[in-house]
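User: Predict Transport permease protein's structure from this.
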Amino acid sequence: MSTVTPGTFTPAPGAAPLAQQVRAQAAMETKLLLRNGEQLLIALVIPVLALVGGVVGAERLGLTFDHRVVDVLTPGVLALGVLSTSFTSLAIATGFERRYGLIKRLGASPLPRFGLLLGKVIALFGVMALQAIVISAVGFALGWRPHGGLVGVVVAVAGAFLGTLAFASLGLFMAGTLRAEATLAAANLIYLLLMMGGGVVLPHSSYGGGGGVLRLLPSGALGDVMRSGLIDGQCDALGMFVLVFWAIAGSLLAGRFFKWE
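Assistant:
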């Protein structure tokens, strides 16, 4: 007669490894972003329309820049994609998750709260990779030819990474302190203001005397970094510094004031 080692069939409940939890959370966040029509509108449709409309409109109006219109606008619209996903979409989604109590319930799960936020940020990078592919494809169809080479691509990716950290932290700060309805209104309003006058799509030099101030905003800094990398193959040191500053400041604000319920 065979014997069974004591404890063989005893349940051993426990949390999965942290990395596995974060991956699962990131996968879920990505699916939620891609299934939400409003988020897709902000993340893909508006940037593509801004690129096509900007190129066609500039050519019809006779607007000129130091480089070809499509070469100037495409890096700016790539920066706009970072802003739309990491700030506007994240703030709105998190605000309503907080309102419905989802954030509170997830905070009580085995997944640590910093793991929840990390999963959201990882999901953002996945969505932004899709954004970059779509926007770049449209830019190439319009005649975009990036001249920055490999160095320019590295600079642009680094800028997008820092821009994501900066805007995501600011978006979480907003979503964690305001009511969901206020977050919805504020996030959309800030998005429109920065898209039109924040130095993200157009170079800061297009705004006359106020362009110097725009360089200190995360939107203007990100636009400058993307353009300097993909047009000139150079790194805008001031832009990088500004993005690092806003990433640190936003993280401190979100960590201090974010309310889980």
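The chain has a mean pLDDT of 85.
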